Amino acid sequence: MCKKPFSYFKAISILLLFCSFFTWGQSTDLVRLEYLRIPENDTGIKTSRYKALINAPLKLKNDDYFVLGAEYNEFDVDFSKALPFDAAIVERLHIIDLNLGYISKWNDSWRLIGVVTPRLASNLTMGTTMDDFFFNATATFLKDVKDVDKPFRIVVGLSFNSTTGLPIPLPLVSYYKRFHPNWSYTVGVPKSNFKFHPSPKHTLQMALFLDGYFINIQNDFVLPSGLTASKISLSSLVGTLGYQYNFNKLMSWYVLMGRSILQEGILRNDKRDRVLLLNDEANLYIRTGFKIAIF
Questions:
Q1: Residue 152: half-sphere exposure toward Cβ, Cα within 13 Å
Q2: Cα gap 107→239, rounded to integer Å
Q3: DSSP state of 227
Q4: Is 64 exposed, middle or buried (0-12, 13-18, 19+ CB in 10 A)?
Q5: Is the backbone of residue 124 left (phi > 0), alpha (psi -120 to 50) or beta?
Q6: Residues 115-174: pLDDT tens digits?
Q7: What's this model's pTM, rounded to 2 decimal places?
Q8: What does the pLDDT look like over 234-246, one tens digit per residue?
């Protein structure tokens, strides 16, 4: 498939990629262990993802914090249908992030949060190469108001991601409000949700969020079309229903089940142009895990 002019669908794809990458390396969790299953669809592709994350905040003077963290994602991709290349090349993919963050009390209402995230994203078939490394950075302002009848949280900022191909930072915004003792919502990107809290131990939710990856392929290969594949990406918009069991205010187990609304799995060249569409069919989406949150 040859390169096409810039279009509405390409703009949506770039937005999906950008927002899904923001979700990795920018987590507000102290610890997260997670398993994702995307069952096989009509294209014959199914995916499993294993995630492990840890962030360690270190208190500095004047209520400031330095945060050191790391995250690992492994994707196991199975192809049941014949493809015009050796599928073993992209059957196991890896993303390793190092998170370096700084949290500063800007004034009585707002905190400034800066995060830089060096990333290794590769199929790792022959050690590491320079093309495996990417760089992400985010700067946000956070206002978190808890001790009121209707708690709320505002996050606004900018994020730069080297994998999107866009040379400028892009805006980020999120607004959370507990507008009733049993109800809350979050509106923004990369995630929006609406939650029902029947008791402190149980939470039900509807969620709409972005997910995906962008990963280097070390051993580039030429397709029958004559085009060379050197990157693989997945971008999806997912709607889910979920349940969360809260051991306490910060520790919980959760499960999400839903379906992708928009989805594209693509082989790309070094310029990030599309060379082969792998998957544009909707999938079921099942995710479960354990986490300890910061708030």
A1: 9
A2: 37
A3: P
A4: middle
A5: left
A6: 999 999 999 998 899 999 999 898 999 998 988 999 999 999 888 887 766 667 888 889
A7: 0.88
A8: 988 999 999 999 9
